[in-house]
Amino acid sequence: MSLDQLTNEAPAYNFAYLDEQTKRMIRRAILKGIAVPGYQVPFAAREMPMPYGWGTGGVQVTASVLGESDILKVIDQGADDTTNAVSIRNFFAKTANVDLTTHTSEATVIQTRHRIPEEELQEHQTLVYQVPIPEPLRFLEPRETETRKMHALSEYGLIHVKLYEDIATHGHIATTYAYPVMVEGRYVMDPSPTPKFDNPKMHKSKALQLFGAGREKRIYALPPHTDVVSLDFEDHPFTIQEWPDTKCAMCGAEGVYFDEVILDDAGNNMFVCSDSDYCETRQSEGHLGPLNADYKERMQ
Amino acid sequence: MPMPQQAIAQGFTDLTHQSQQSFKAIMDAMAQPGKIYDAPHKVDNAGALNPVAAMTALTLCDAETLIYLDEALNTPETRQFLAFHTGAATTSDPQKAQFAFLSSAEALEGDHNFNMGNHEYPDQSSTVIIAVNDLANQAGVTLSGPGIETSRAFASSSLNQQFWQQAEANNAEYPLGIDHIFVTETQLAALPRSTKIKLDPAQGE
Ligand SMILES: [Zn+2]
């Protein structure tokens, strides 16, 4: 058989790879997750043609919600062009033949690892998170039977103790990623490895947020307009990361989540938006940062 | 299984995409309680199930789920339709049902015994699909909670005060509880256990 014949053959896999029975099982879990926001619904995760750590949980959730007319965006650390994001995007381009975009505003489904886009999400959008460790209490209590009891009883003293120990040791809460949140005053939830900078974006988001953990076989969800409050203490309120007096070197944005880029051996650095689409859109709209080549040209 | 007395109606003609479109509507409805959605597919002649109830069954039920049917829906035609298209078995025990299809909210009155899940696994609960005549976002009850920005007016002539009191009691057990999907001949809306319900003062008297 020629390569041409091979590539022209009807695909051997179902739309979006998963078989219908698996999708139904995942869809049932998603509905339960939506009905009980922040509660981790067990599901029978399938093997996917990619290694764990590559977002198999998120991929299974995306595969179960994605339709022919959806427009998909995939980000990793805020960028659309990283290896992980590209391989997942290619996977769905091949198995589901959906339209792809890098523009947040154009996407109907966004799969992410680490970041929530800077641009506010809307009601018609679904954000799917790839989650490595869904259990926020796991580092404190390794036994699933015990963590399940804690959630059942809303017994979250341990995690407060952990955060308070942070304060005792560091003078502030040192947790900056996967910073635990309280959902609708009932369940403590791991917001996946997003920086705490993004926690406030989860609160009352207009978009539906779905979380998939492949290895740990858990799905959880936040419907739109759900209360998501970062855990804190009266004398040590929750704060997000801040970069005072910092502007994006490329687009001049302030108050966004920055990546630091080292420029040379002398230790010169610059800060750029972690959200590459946000940054590029701003540049195309004429917002230019001090290290942008167009900016230099304009200044000459 | 005895031979069906008449031909079993067609299910989805394009299983993959019609399932996805139907699920999307059900998911959005569950994520925005009380908001009314047009059903993307209507499945006719599904025994005693209305076309949107049938769409829901085809989308969510299979050999891994047990279905409860109330008396009016529990006909040989309905059972044959469900068995043929979903492979789901029916149960007469509401406690065992992952999905319950009801011809009216009456089956929920009193001590209905559908599964509310348990504190460690609140997901092990029944989802109840109730046929109603109409759905409207107008004065009736006021819904609030996850999925609703401030509040949402919701009414159906098929849902009486007794139902809403039952639904309030269901919400009071949160995170335990049953989740509701209301289906007309063409539309659907959902009421998950997380939704708070305020009875209209006029109705509450
Ligand atoms: Zn920028």
TrEMBL record, chain A:
GO terms for biological process: organic phosphonate catabolic process. It catalyses: alpha-D-ribose 1-methylphosphonate 5-phosphate + AH2 + S-adenosyl-L-methionine = alpha-D-ribose 1,2-cyclic phosphate 5-phosphate + methane + 5'-deoxyadenosine + L-methionine + A + H(+). Keywords: 4Fe-4S, Iron, Iron-sulfur, Lyase, Metal-binding, S-adenosyl-L-methionine. Its EC number is 4.7.1.1. The keyword Iron-sulfur applies. InterPro entries: PhnJ (IPR010306). Pfam families: PhnJ. The keyword S-adenosyl-L-methionine applies. GO terms for molecular function: 4 iron, 4 sulfur cluster binding; alpha-D-ribose 1-methylphosphonate 5-phosphate C-P-lyase activity; metal ion binding. Belongs to the PhnJ family. Catalyzes the breakage of the C-P bond in alpha-D-ribose 1-methylphosphonate 5-phosphate (PRPn) forming alpha-D-ribose. This is Alpha-D-ribose 1-methylphosphonate 5-phosphate C-P lyase. It comes from Maritalea mobilis.
UniProtKB/TrEMBL annotation, chain B:
It comes from the Bacteria. SUPFAM superfamilies: PhnH-like (SSF159709). GO terms for biological process: organic phosphonate metabolic process. InterPro entries: PhnH-like_sp, Phosphonate_metab_PhnH. Pfam families: PhnH. This is Alpha-D-ribose 1-methylphosphonate 5-triphosphate synthase subunit PhnH. The lineage of its organism: Bacteria, Pseudomonadati, Pseudomonadota, Alphaproteobacteria, Hyphomicrobiales.
